[in-house]
Description:
By secondary structure, this protein is of the alpha/beta class. The protein has helices spanning 11-22, 41-52, 64-74, 89-101, 115-122, 163-179, 201-214, 229-233, 235-240, 259-272, 297-317, and strands spanning 31-36, 56-62, 82-85, 107-110, 136-142, 150-153, 186-190, 222-227, 253-255, 276-282, 288-289. The strands form two sheets. The protein has a six-stranded mixed β-sheet, with helices on both faces. Helix 1 runs parallel beside helix 11 (297-317) and helix 2 (41-52) crosses helix 11 (297-317).
Amino acid sequence: MHASDAPAPDVAQRDARYRRMLDVAAGLPPVRLAVAHPCDAESLAGALLTRTAGIAEPVLVGPAWRIRAVAEEHGLDLGGVDIVDVEHSHAAAEKAVELCREGRCEAMMKGSLHTDELLGAVVDKTTGLRTGRRISHVFVADVPTYPHPLMITDAAINIEPTLEEKADIVRNAIDLAHAMGLAEPKVAILSAVETVTPKLRSTIDAACLCKMADRGQIRGGLLDGPLAFDNAISLPAAQTKGIVSPVAGRADILVVPDIESGNMLAKQLEYLAHALLCGIVLGARVPIVLTSRADDARTRAASCAIAQLLAHRKRTAVRP
Length: 320
């Protein structure tokens, strides 16, 4: 049977899974969301869907004529939605960052512009949204064959992270897990093998990260590694190899060695296992929804629900 002949996932079940992802922020008030350059149908529809779903009050930042033209072409209603008119995509990225830096928006979403263009404005040392943390990306995956949400990091930003950068990647993911209600998330540091070997840097990094957690340099999660992927998510696989670990077979967070392995893992889960993926950038002053051009409006809205949850958590944390 060819891939094209494979049965499609049940539509009703898929809708229910999307609603479950949106429920992560159920009952929370909407947040102001700066949407940088929503100048194609999916990015504009996704931004408007956040308003319909009560997730956000989107602020559309881009050439107003293009935004209105896309809305007219695709029958999208812009009534009551704020539009900040700027000349082009680069200016849209800078203006969206400015709105967040000045506190006029609490989260940001990428529209139809290049990721490098948006992140360039985010990490600018003078006018950006940097903090003391390394910026990293987390995919939150609803995998039909796994009993609970699975986080994958970093599959989108850090290419070959150093040990220090991996420590921040882990800290960011643990913070997200806490926001989603996990008191002590189980963090699996992935490699190709389960034993530490000097020939494979990812195993050395995994061992160091675990020792950092033992010494309190990384807090709030339960770390173990190196673990191969099967041992991280399958208890029988871990038991077969004699791995005794509270993380093995039960992982909440998968920390990948580099962007290539992470990107392939996430897309394999999406296209072969019918996982639903939401993506969020952490470590900046505000949560950033970093969408792919292949993401539909519902995926973008579900990612914004995570941003809403994080923005609300920050809002209540600073409240006297």
